[in-house]
Amino acid sequence: MDQAHIDFWLKEFEHFTTVIVANGEVPSSELSLSILKEKKRVVCCDGALQKLLSINIIPDVVVGDGDSMDSKLLDCVKNHQIPYHPDRSEEYNDLQKALKYCQANGYDDVLLLGCGGLREDHFIANLSIMVMYSEKMRLAMLTEHGVFNVLRGAATLPSFPGMQVSVFPSNLHTRLSFSGLKYPVNSRSFNWLWEGSLNEALGDAFTVEADDEEPVVVYRAI
Questions:
Q1: Which residues, other chains included, contact 46 with Cβ-Cβ below 8 Å and sequence gap of 6+?
Q2: 116: nearest Cα among 147, 89, 86
């Protein structure tokens, strides 16, 4: 990724004041590392702590039940070398625990990292969790390959010519319209999720409009 594209995404993410790092693929791209180093706070799911430390990132807080940390790391957080917020609830996974911690502390603009790259079922579950929590929080998910946003109603997103874009409605009855993309759509509902995929931005922005407030997931390749 060249510097112009890195600068594009850094500007896109500048309003996010909090980053959650989940226990998926280790953030390793220049973009991911730049974001981790510049953010005001980093909330780490306990299973991702060793991964963050391996890239010389010390989180502001670790959230979880501690069962994903070895004894050395657990002693470290329990001795307050790294702030630790225990959450032993069994009905939520680690990403939900971290999101609940952010909600409780008024951190409403959150960028999610480390949510993919390993087990695909975990990634699908994490994407679904983002959609659910986006009703009350401003969220985006950055993987090593692209960015997921959740939209409701109509929204315009920044782009650049040639950016690869896919749109996935959560409800197939939702009628969608696309403008600013190579393959426009005019008030159409899909029969299958793949029908809104593999599109391409024509300029510096594109618009997705839904005829209801059901969530729509938009993917932009970085």
A1: 23, 62, 63, 64, 65, 66, 67, 68, 69, 77, 94
A2: 147
Does residue 209 contact residue 154 with C-beta atoms inside 8 Å?
yes
**Beta-bridge partner residues of 42:** 19
SS3 content of the chain, % helix, strand, coil (to 5): 30, 30, 40
Domains plus CATH for the chain? 3-144 (3.40.50.10240), 151-221 (2.60.120.320)
The DSSP-derived string for 64-121 is E-STTS-HHHHHHHHTTSS-EEE---SSS-HHHHHHHHHHHTT--EEEEES-SSS-HH
Write down the pLDDT at residue 9. 95
Report if pTM > 0.90: yes
Cα 77–Cα 83–Cα 85 angle in degrees, nearest 5: 90
> Which residue matches tokens 């997921």?
148
pLDDT per residue over 74-103, tens digit each?
666 656 577 888 777 778 888 999 999 999
What value does the mean pLDDT take over residues 93-118? 94
**Nearest one of 60, 100, 53 to 84, comparing CA atoms:** 60
Count of C-beta atoms within a 10 Å radius of residue 158: 14
State how far the Cα of 70 lies from the Cα of 50, in Å rounded to an integer: 9
Residue matched to tokens 């407030």: 213
Query: pLDDT tens digits for 163-214?
Result: 999 999 999 999 999 999 999 999 999 999 999 999 999 999 999 999 999 9
